[in-house]
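Box S1 | Example of a co-folding query
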Amino acid sequence: MLVQTNKLKATTENVMQVLSAVTDPEIPVLSIIDLGIVRDVIINNDEVEIIITATYSGCPAMDMIAMNIRLAMMENGFSKIKITTALAPAWTTDWMSEDGKRKLKEYGIAAPDKNFNIATDGVECPQCHSTNTKLLSEFGSTACKALYQCNNCREPFDYFKCH
Amino acid sequence: MSFLIDYTLHLADSNLILAQRNAEWCGHGPILEQDIAITNISLDLLGQSRNMYQYAATLMGNGATEDTLAYLRTEREFKNCLLVEQPNGDWGQTVLRQFLYSTFQQLLYQQLQKNTDEQLAAIAAKALKEIAYHVRWSSEWVIRLGDGTVESHQRMLHAIDELWRYTGEMFIPADYENSFGVNVTALKDEWMQKVTSVFEEATLPIPEKIFMQTGGKTGVHTEHLGYILTELQYLQRAYPGAEW
Ligand SMILES: [Zn+2]
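Box S1 (continued) | Returned holo structure for zinc ion
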């Protein structure tokens, strides 16, 4: 396969630029920068080391994210790429960017909310903004989400749990 | 070093086997939301065990990988506690097993996150966020079924009868736990308090002192583990090195 390369200089800024186009395969509206899973970028001559952290221990998207990072970097002309997974400090939804939270809501997923550290009834509906909502299950379609239903507009929705 | 490897494998094995048991519910849960919940818990446990196996593999060297550790060790080499290999039974038995284990795992990992071994500490700290959900979910189910209908109450009594004798082992340290692992004996009182408070709300009795089965941590298992491994390891045993 021929990969078209636009060679970028190895600077932290350029690498972050590339990474901001890599998205979460399960929530494609969020980039890995929005999610806060990129912890550091270390540039050593022409080698770029990218340190990422998993959201949940069993998050099945992590392997794919690492592969997508590698591909995106190669497409931009980087050849020496090292991806390191760090366990500590543990990822938290506090690292999600405000921009990311806004994009989540627009996508139809309620963003992590400090008032709902423990998922309970009342998380704001991303469709109609009512807080008359009901928790259906603390576990949703992926490890990071809980399942809700809005009593006002009757739509079901996901809530990205505080973690 | 050998104790550290055994300890890490013990922690990994308990999680892997419970993950495998819970995964048996996939597509069979009582309702869709709960099917998703139990398999989410399974996935969390699996992820935690992978972190542990990866760590054990780096300590061991010699070509060990997380896969060889999960797929190519025999029954006698597995160090999981007996509780997690017990059959799913009905939904009551499954949620009770989860509750008894998660309550223990939470206390264990709260100490493990302070361990001098930084890698184990990091894995534990991350896992604790997940375990909090497991404890809450399984406590709610134990209460719902214990304090539910005559039938659900009866089934929970049966579940306690099936599982209680496997809980004692968790608090009796194996050799490899003694050297630097968490002092599990010291966790027992707090575990009992937590279990008692949920059982009280569930109108369920704490059993009298009974004989406790032991052996899992040193590789002496109930007959169930062999069947679990037969299924879990089938592909790698039949087609060694298979990848996809
Ligand atoms: Zn609504």
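Residues A 125, 127-128, 130, 150, 152-153, 155 surround zinc ion (CB under 6 Å). The longest strand of chain A covers residues 38-44.
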